[in-house]
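Just wondering, can you check both lines?
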Amino acid sequence: MADQTTPAIDIKAAAAAANAVLSQTATASEQARQVDAAAIAAIRAAGLSRLMAPTRFGGQEAPVSAHIRSCHALAHGCSAASWVHMVCAAHTYVVGRFPEQYLQEVFGETPDVLIPGTLAPQGQARKVDGGWILTGRWQFGSGADHGPWLLLGAMAVADDGETALPPVHLVVPTADIQIIDTWFTLGMRGTGSKDLEADAVFVPAHRAMPTRELFRGDFEGEAGPLYRLPVMGGLASMLAATVVGTAERGLEHFIDITKARKEAYSGRDKSQKVSVQMRLAEAQGEVRLAALLVEENCALLDAAMAENKPPLSVERSAHIRWNAVYAVELCRRATERVYAAAGAGATFDSSPLQKWFRDINTACHHAICDFDGALEIQGRLALGMSAGAMV
């Protein structure tokens, strides 16, 4: 069993080594609309792509906090590379719960395997002898160009094609799925989050699990405590870490650029403008608070991993989810406030501030960090009602 408190590698040092490459390939990733191969290789070489993989296959099976912190650190090098790293390792965190036969298939050759895909149940799985027939089209397959397997969510029906069954998540070879290049977006362009389409693909039973138990962690079968944690709160925390790291790097760019800016008509130093100082101070406070919320989630998830008594209560799961969603919202607000004072120069494609603004606003549209939905859950629980949604 993996050490439940300390990862086997130094996350800061590993991320710093990877970022030396990521910072150099970020523009190429943006232009190609997928993460540059050299960036993927650098993350692998640093040992970060195996953080969530099972130890018996050479993975780290590290505390989930290790992956969360790696996402945060890598966002300082390249937001898109951090995002794809976040998604693929989050999916490893999910598939580590699958039956042994599948784990042998996916991790048998290397624990560094990347597993892109999309968790939203946008397709349909029809139950047949020995498995499922998967059909449908999924949006937002981040990193689909970089992995041999895809994790996909689906609504399930019986063999008659009509009787509803509980939703399932399935893993399929990327070669069985058509990748459709739809990724022309406002931001996060380097993530290559393209559409994925399945046309009556057979998926054997050992590559599928019921969504509810899978996500709660109380499924039948053997799995270490890492794989018994709630998926939604873990995934939201990983995403929030990438957003916080991106926001921090953007503020650094804003400070550097503002120090050198002059007012267009008066020629005075822009940094002397009180309104700019106030915007920056408030934005820094929000991003710092966001980072603290993510760190609180690291502690909460690691404590739950050590406790290893799935499923986590609705209240604890909702707390973790709320911390992550609110951290993302704080970063969005901070970015909006400061970008409004960034001047006309920040509207050029060549400006790091424009990319920062675009990436933050795109990341914040992920369904896992839907702010209105999180507000509703928090309000319902505060009023003594049921959460009304999966948390």
Notes: Confidence is low (pLDDT under 50) at residues 1-5. The beta strands are 117-128, 131-141, 149-157, 164-173, 178-180, 194-204, 208-210. Residues 248 and 288 are 8 Å apart (CA to CA).
